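Pipeline run #58 for the internal structure catalog. This entry was flagged by the ingest filter as a single-chain record with no existing model, so it goes straight to prediction. Upstream metadata was stripped on purpose; only the residue string is passed forward. Reviewer on rotation: M.T. Logging verbosity set to normal.
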Amino acid sequence: MRRLTLRAYRALIVAAASTTYFLFYFGRYNYSAAGPFIKSELLWTPLMWGVFTSLLTTGYAVGQLINGFLVDRFGPRRVWGLGGILSGLANLAVSSGWSYSVMATAWGINGYAQATGAPSYSRLYSNWFPEGRRGLPASITNSSRLIAASACLPLLSLVAVAYGWRMCFIIPGLILIPVGALTLLLLKESPSDVGLEAPWVKHPVSRKFRELVRESYELIWSDKVFLSHALSYGAAQFICFSIYAWIPIYLVEVLGYDPVTAASLTAFFPVAGAICAVPLGYLADKLGFGIRRYILGTGLVGASLSLLILTYVPNLPTLATVLLILACGAGIEGIDTVFFIVVMDKYGKTGRVGTAYGSLNAVGKAFGTIEGLVLGAIIGLLSWREALTTCVAVGLAGALCQIPVTAQWIRK
């Protein structure tokens, strides 16, 4: 039997990782479609909803700090496979609706399980692709989750209307359990698994577990430029989770749309990201390390200004609202891959991509956690305008944090 070429295996790996990541997102952004139904049926206050959404990002942030290192240590196959199974079980637990505490706890666990995906595929692509060729596959996989979010919002809102909000969690749960099992059994982590050479692959150093943990995190967190880059990503995630958690409810409660239309309008946010992610990831590779901070800064500024208009000019025609949400999506979801290409190329040469990727994502989801609590409190105490203006200010500050992220730092 003829053995496949490296190029063919790479195509299969990208297809498998992108499909898995696509399905993962039905078990994460389903809460956005279910939110208006849960809030009205269970009579949750804005703060209760904010805490619930924040627990997803809290679990995700904790998971990124832990799982990034676990991926470097034990490989993406085990970590991602078990994560899929756990995420499926957590979604089923949320669907039970037994009590607020049970649902919130299960949603936090789901956040941890979902945090196995991003560092796994980053390590996978660092193994299968050399430096300077990771942007395109990473952006394809990132686009797959944006396509999932685009489809998830309107489809699951229709499911909620027809069958109740619980089905928004049951369906993803039943999908993710077998997906996790197949990943655990079949994923090929490196060209060496199929008998091919890959001299760029950095294997884990054989040292004591505690020593490796300390050394890996010290290398990354002692770097002030990494911290600035991470704060910039945190700002982007603050806006991102504000859109998914609050805009459907804002469209229903303030602008008067029905829940299905609100979910469909919100879906234009990831649609724009899916459209922009691949070309921006490709350009980030082709135009060199120096262009990346400009892509990221421009995206944050553009999204912030679009959200500002949506906040202060609320009675716009539906088409104008769609265009503003598209602009937000291009500026936030469209640039997401570029944030991670930076750390893949910076830390790939040391074999600590999973740790760096997880650390960056942890900061982002920590900001997502703060977002839920802060905006829930502001909406409850003040108004929607003050809450969304806070998002704008955070986004502009994030753009400034890109200033020190130079080509020289990435190469160093």
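catalog note: The two ends are 44 Å apart (CA to CA).
catalog note: The chain has one domain: 6-185+209-411.
status: ready for reviewer M.T.
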